[in-house]
Amino acid sequence: MITGGNARIRSEKVMEFLMLLCSMVSVVTTVGIILVLSVDTVRFFGEVSFIDFVTDTQWTPLFEDKHFGILSLLSGTLLTTCIAILLAVPVGVSIAVYLNEYASPKFTSIAKPILEVLAAVPTVVYGFFALQFVTPLLQRFIPGLAGFNALSPGLVMGVMIIPYITSLSEDALRAVPKSLREASYGLGANRFQTAFSVLVPAANSGIIVSIILAVSRALGETMIVAIAAGQEPKLTFNPLESVETITTYIVQVSMGDVPQDSLEYRTIFAAGMALFVLTFLLNNISFWIRKKYQRRYE
Amino acid sequence: MKTTAYLTWLLLIGTLSLSSCFKHYKAKINIDGSSSVYPLTEAVAEEFRKIEPDIRITVGISGTGGGFKKFLRGETDISNASRPISKNELAISRANGIQFIEIPVSYDGMAIVVSPKNDFVDYITVAELKTMWSPASQDKINSWKQVRSSWPDVPLNLYGAGTSSGTYDYFTEAINGKAKASRGDYTASEDDNVLVQGVSSDKNGLAYFGLAYYTENKDKLKLVPVKVTGEAPAIFPSERTVQSGQYQPLSRPEFIYVNAESAKSPFVKQFVRFYTEHAASLAREVGYVPLPEEVYQLGYERFLNSKTGSVFENKSIVGVNLIQLLSE
Amino acid sequence: MNRYSITPALKDRLFKIFAIGCTGFALLTLLVLIIDILIKGLGRINWAFFTNLPSRHPEASGIYTALAGMVSLLFFTLLIALPIGILSGIYLEEYGRKNRVAKFIEVNISNLAGVPSVIYGILGLQLFVRLAGLGNSILAGAFTLALLIMPIIIVSTREAIKAVPHSMREAAFGLGATKWQTVVRVVLPAAFGGILTGIILSVSRAIGETAPLIVVGALAYVPFIPEGPMDQFTSLPIQIFNWTSRPQQGFIDNAAAGIIVLLLFTLLLNGIAIALRNRWYKKTSL
Q1: What mean pLDDT is predicted for residues B224-238?
Q2: pLDDT grade for A216, boundaries at 50, 70 and 90
Q3: Within-domain flag for A269
């Protein structure tokens, strides 16, 4: 028995439609991002050859001798991300394993809030920390370290993404059926052997997903590298030098005054597109892995 | 019922805090342009704010070139410029019907700066600067030794103005012989603070920027004297050497350009008068070199008489005599 | 066992030490960060710091305009993001369980959550600043931030609604309520705690965002109070960024002081969210 009759049914249908429209906003956003990036990227490639874009080793779009090679910005992005991952993966996975297999409730009650706080700190704060504390500290031990370098923001980014790896890896480890764990202990293995010979391999898809998402986060990070890594596009793998990442470049050009609709302005979109494609690919690979291995133990 | 009470309270608090976020002003003056002139204009604007808090003045740092673009679209009232208006920009001003009054406000001696940890640079010649910065050196001159053989073979890390900066235009014209001609593989920024930070912590770095940024950060930087030719004396930029014209070729006057339409407003008139009256003392405070008193008076007279156009229309800025030009 | 082999027991011990060391490292970094910032910035915190406008003299600079910008930005961001986000969450969880459009939207949201914030800035630049003609105004910034935090609101709303026991819904249906009546009068009130948690988390995220606002055109030096939502603005993280870029020690101290204020807000909000979440979980578990 429906009270109110047809008017109520109609107004409810209207509400449902309205809510559907609201949900479509997310689709519109994605379409918007792809469109906005694509339109100007296509215009960009009307003037710059794609081969040049991916092979030229210099990025000097604003100068007389113009070069549009994304490799130098890309190397800055990859270099800082690599350093971050090299720090975050061993630390993050170890903490996750420890919380899962070894830790007492007291330990967990200390560790969890720390990780939550690490994830909540705004990135501009991390950037300040990298430039004003970490870089001078490192300069005491590494005399050749320039004021702007890739090492300092890389390390700080690493600390920032530890919570990403830890929380997802922990979830993955917890999802491993108790039976496997008990079987391992039953065979006489200790915690270390159980953790690394049984549990981690069993949870490896979840752990890999966490790493991929952490990489994606690091690639897209802006403020930490904008403040501490430098503004000199350079194709290098030396972490002691100043580099520029794709994200820093976008911010740098936005802060200056490049005339709209010029080739220089369009470099923002080409660079942004490169970044978007990278992170989009990584994110979707991780979704696919998660979906594929979701039902493994059911 | 409780939810409604919550919501009403939230709305009240929200509106209250929101109203304190907005304010009404009786006049607005938009200024944009050179990051070199910025410290001076900012200082003037701030002192002006103390006597006229209801006049809002915003100062941007889009660079001399970027500032002129906005100025010539009529988007700003005053443009900060560390070089005179160029031929192209003059043509655009005629096409867009924007008339302006050109007022010099200070001298700047562009400082060549290295890290205090640098122990091998004692002076630098103009020819060596050209080797370092010319477009032909892009990707090729990467070591200090390549510039002067007695310098060590360590990497040459350069820091300098960005491409919409007047400092960039002036430096490239004075050193490389052609405005805007420069290598591109260096840390370029319109924000001189970034350059200061970069070079102060880089043992192998060299930077150029406005003298004010050196004076502000003396304790972090080492100033390098410049020799015009190999035999000339090495001169440090200072108030004396810049005013007398001894520090060459990197001494230059800095300007503000006032939109002639905006100049009709009593508020703008008040501001410009304040500017020319206080520029000398504030220039010293921020680390620039004040112009001779006569030049400020001549400049203000031009403003009062709405004398539009640029005195540099067909002249180069390098080595110029302002009193002579403005009196014409 | 010959003495050259590392016994399994030893590996176990070593790992334990390593893992504790890792956790200690994370804790240490956090502590050092907080202590360093407190040392640099605490001395600058006084009433004048909150009421002053920015200045060229570090000691006379304050965060009033940054705070004003932040509050008004937040107000408009929430005004835009909350209705759309919550309604989307309700739809996806209550109505769209089975149809394909809903699945497609879900995938979209997951993707959007992983897009770098700079890209949102570029979107906002073209769409709101240029196309919609809003210029580099508070509204343009608010729309951009709203898009950025929407995935958070949608996901939290969904989780909150998902946690409402089916029994409550079925009881409502049993009494003759329609779907919409059930949602509004039964599900939402029960999910309120969770939704509020999501709102607070998204606010915490929004106040810390810097890069997208820079791309949209927030200024770094705003010695004035905005006149309205169509005016230019700055926000606290951007003011901090501007001060951090200045080499003078006075401004570095200012940046640290600004960070203290920002961190206080952020950690306070996160703390409230966590407390709420715990309380609410107790409430709906039967």
Answers
A1: 88
A2: very high
A3: no
Q: Which chains touch B (3 or more CB pairs under 8 A)?
A: A, C
Contact A212, A161 (CB under 8 A): no
CA distance A225 to A219: 10
Q: Cα–Cα distances in Å, from A255 out to A265, B64, C178?
A: 12, 14, 53
Residues 6+ away with beta carbon under 8 Å from A254: A268, C121, C125, C214, C215, C217
Question: Beta strand B157-161 with B187-189: parallel, antiparallel or unpaired?
Answer: parallel
| Furthest-apart CA atoms within chain A: distance in Å | 81
Displacement of CA C12 from its chain's centroid (Å): 39
Per-residue confidence of chain C (286 residues) as pLDDT tens digits?
A: 556 677 888 888 888 899 999 999 999 999 999 999 999 989 888 888 888 888 888 888 888 889 988 988 999 999 999 999 999 998 888 877 777 888 888 888 989 989 999 999 999 989 998 888 888 888 999 999 999 999 999 998 988 888 888 888 888 888 888 888 888 888 888 888 888 888 998 999 999 999 999 888 876 667 788 878 888 888 999 999 888 877 778 889 999 999 999 999 999 998 888 888 777 666 554 4
Cβ-defined contact of A257 to B65 (cutoff 8 Å): yes
Q: Supply the mean pLDDT for chain A.
A: 88
CA distance C11 to chain A (A): 7
Q: From A235, which residue of chain B is nearest by alpha-carbon distance?
A: B185
- Confidence (pTM): 0.85
Can you give C198-222 as a three-state secondary structure string?
HHHHHHHHHHHCCHHHHHHCCCCCC
For C105, which residue in chain A has the nearest alpha carbon? A27
Q: For residue C232, which amino acid is it?
A: Q
| Contacts with A121 from chain C: Cβ below 8 Å | 33, 208, 263, 266
Neighbours of B9 (CB within 10 A): 10
A102/C9 touch (CB, cutoff 8 Å), yes or no: no
pLDDT surpassing 80 at residue A64: no
**CATH T-level fold of B23-106+253-327:** D-Maltodextrin-Binding Protein; domain 2 (3.40.190)
Chain C residues with CB-CB distance to A195 below 8 A? 15
Mutate to test the interface with B, among C55, C56, C234 (most CBs of B within 10 A): C56
**A144 with B203: Cβ contact below 8 A:** yes
ipTM at complex level: 0.88
pLDDT for A244-264, tens place per residue? 999 999 988 887 666 677 888
Distance from CA of B58 to the nearest CA of C (A): 7
3-state secondary structure of B269: helix
- Cross-strand partners of B254: B106
| Residues listed for chain A | 298
Q: What is the pLDDT of residue A298?
A: 44
> What's the gap between Cα C251 and its chain centre?
26
Instruction: Count structural domains, chain A.
Output: 1
- Alpha-carbon distance of A171 to A148, in angstroms, equals 37
| Residue A122, pLDDT above cutoff 90 | yes
The boundaries of the domain holding residue A285 are 71-258+278-293
Task: Tell me if A23 is assigned to some domain.
Answer: no
Residue A149 belongs to domain with CATH number: 1.10.3720.10
Question: What residues in C contact A123, CB-CB < 8 Å?
Answer: 208, 210
Give B4 or B188, the one with higher predicted confidence.
B188
CB C206 within 8 Å of CB C35: no
Q: Say how many C-beta atoms besides its own lie within 10 A of residue C240's C-beta.
A: 28
B111-236: CATH homologous superfamily?
Periplasmic binding protein-like II (3.40.190.10)
